[in-house]
Structures are given as structure tokens and as C-alpha cells.
């Protein structure tokens, strides 16, 4: 799934005549981290989906819609699987952030 989104990112970036470095700077990540997203080696695009949508002037849903040019013949079920994967990644991130918040609250309580 990351490959499908990565292909879409590459297509969008090239349509805007932008370099990987320019997109990476906008996202406040390294060029190599962005390259991993485009190559499908990283799912961190999900964390940056709102900024990605803004830079390419698309809705987040448009990033997840995979057309024939992007998926090279993959089944339409890939979109559903991709949506589920995004939800799972966000849920995991929310769990991580809740743990960080609880840890910070405990630290703050111990200081008082």
C-alpha cells in the first residue's frame, strides 16, 4: 500500500515540478525520508497527510484514491486496504501520544 501512495506522491510532485528536497523541506523531514515515502519503504506519509494535501492542493481522500496510472493494474480493493491501513496507523499514533501524555502528567505530578 505504501508503494501505491508512494507512486501517487511521485506523480503529484512531478506534476508540480518540485524536487524531493523541496517537498521534504515543506514537510520538515529529510530528503531521504521523503524518498523512502515515494519508494514505498515508509508509511510515514500518513503522519504528514494534511501537509501533503496542502502542498499538492488536493484533499486527503484524493491521495488515497489510486487510479490506473498509479496502481499499474492493482485491484480496486487496494483503496479499501489502504484506507484501513491509514486508520490503523492513526490509531497506533494516538495510542503512542496518549502514553506520552500520561507519562508527562505523571512526571508533572511527581514534581509537585
UniProtKB/TrEMBL annotation:
Record key words, sorted: Coiled coil, DNA-binding
Molecular function as annotated in GO: DNA binding
SMART domains tied to this protein: HTH_XRE
Residue stretches making up the HTH cro/C1-type domain: 9-63
PROSITE patterns assigned: HTH_CROC1
Domain of life: Bacteria
Sequence intervals crossing the membrane: none
Coiled-coil residue spans: 80-110
Protein's UniProt name: HTH-type transcriptional regulator Xre
